[in-house]
Amino acid sequence: MRAYFDKLLKPLEQQKQLPFIIPFLISLISGAVFSFALAPFHWWWLAILSPALLYACLKGRNPKQALFLGWSYGFGLWFVGAFWLYTSIHTYGDTNAVLSVLMIAIMALVMGLFTAVQTWLYRRFFPETPLTFAPLWVAFEWTKTWVFTGFPWLFAGYAFTERFLDSYAPLFGVFAVSFVVIILACALVEILHRKLIWIIPSTLLLLGAWGASFITFVQPKAEKPLSVSLIQGNIPQDLKWLTEYQVKTLQIYVDLTRNEWGRDLIVWPESSIPLFQSDIPDFLKMMDQRAKQTGSAWVTGIPYWDLKESQQVGQPMYYNSMMASGADSSGLYKKQRLVPFGEYIPLSGLLSWVLPALQNDPSMSGFSRGESDQKPFKIKDHKLAAAVCYEVAYPNLTRRNAENSDFLVTVSNDAWFTGTAGPQQHLQMVQMRAKENGRWFIRATNTGVTAFIDHNGHIVKQAPIDQKAVLRGDLPAMQGETLYTRLSDWPILILSLLLLIVGWIYRPRKVDVSFKSRR
């Protein structure tokens, strides 16, 4: 095995006996296994091995070959890593199995282009070194937060949530954790290639993670903890939006909440009320009065029809939202980022023949994006920064919402992906957001995973999945700001840019001549 690995590491001119199909397949497999480094498997070492193999496969390759190796890796990464989409497309979208798999394959081909372009740029314009490969990796993870509206999933840094390297998160965010992971992965290849100098930076990064674990940015406020109850209704997705099931859904949540009145805060999940606020004013008034009578705050997910805005623009304006009411509590949050295929169907008019069962689902069509400058909820003497479902996958969005807050609260409905790795990966992102911003995260979901996550990103308590449940906790409000909350992603992005600039300056002597000689 060592002999074969050494052969893979040799320069291209010494690899003539190694057909291109071999590194192509290695790249495909290494991308496919990456997601097993994440929840629910937590085989973190794969987050080192997977990019290490890609880096090794790119050794000595020309840009065209690098593009196909990167595309192969990216396809494997997204086809396996995001296969949880199959449940929403096939089971709830009423799409046949073959077409569902084909749609995921097309998605993987498109998303795989990120890695393809990344590896092409790497071999075309930069010298072969971890100090250019890692910055490009981080840059392309960052682009996934905004290109095509963003699909920020499967980042290398998430594999180390609640693990040694996550101490970089409150300093510089998840992209910094990814940067360190990729440097260590590439350094492993260089060390096996007998470039032992890479032991030094690897050791320094590990020592840096150890040292960062002693830095404290936040501390609890000297006041009574907030008593919180999270309500998990466990409403099946195929029943959730049926007209004849709406009253029963409300009754389930009312019954589960009956013994929780008197707690400081009661939270219902995303779209736990499957009706627009304009359809049920009497119900909302009753809940508000009950909350005020018992001294509780009530936060719920609800589809919101902004009637005033609709009149102004001349068309219905619907929002996936959260609202707060009750004792000394108020607030309305409109979701800013919508999830494709899990919440709405891109080009739904063109795809109506593909996903017929989703066209009449109010949660899948017509939602608008909320404004970016929304205020946190006022819950008695506390400020709660809100995020709905998929939004917690966006580091900077959560960071902006978290500014000047005491707690973070998110509601979700992962019933679309029941029985897959999707909900667990989603929870892992919430943990990273809590760690980055130094705030407790309150997470209420329809089917799971409902949980309390502390300011260090640790799951303190969680409800069983796919069961009706009530989760209770007493949470301390936090004060202070992490470095990441203050500076956002700029430090790691600037460092990556500087390294790439240095690589660009170094490029003419190491890359251009090699490139021209191989064309």
UniProtKB/TrEMBL annotation:
Keywords: Acyltransferase, Cell membrane, Membrane, Transferase, Transmembrane, Transmembrane helix. GO terms for biological process: lipoprotein biosynthetic process. It is found in: Cell membrane. InterPro entries: Apolipo_AcylTrfase, C-N_Hydrolase, C-N_Hydrolase_sf, LNT_N. GO terms for molecular function: N-acyltransferase activity. The keyword Transferase applies. Gene3D superfamilies: Carbon-nitrogen hydrolase. Pfam families: CN_hydrolase, LNT_N. Its main location: membrane. Its EC number is 2.3.1.269. It comes from the Bacteria. It is a multi-pass membrane protein. The chain crosses the membrane at residues 20-37, 43-60, 67-86, 98-122, 134-156, 168-189, 196-218, 490-506. GO terms for cellular component: plasma membrane. Pathway: Protein modification; lipoprotein biosynthesis (N-acyl transfer). NCBIfam families: lnt. Catalyzes the phospholipid dependent N-acylation of the N-terminal cysteine of apolipoprotein, the last step in lipoprotein maturation. Belongs to the CN hydrolase family. Apolipoprotein N-acyltransferase subfamily. This is Apolipoprotein N-acyltransferase.
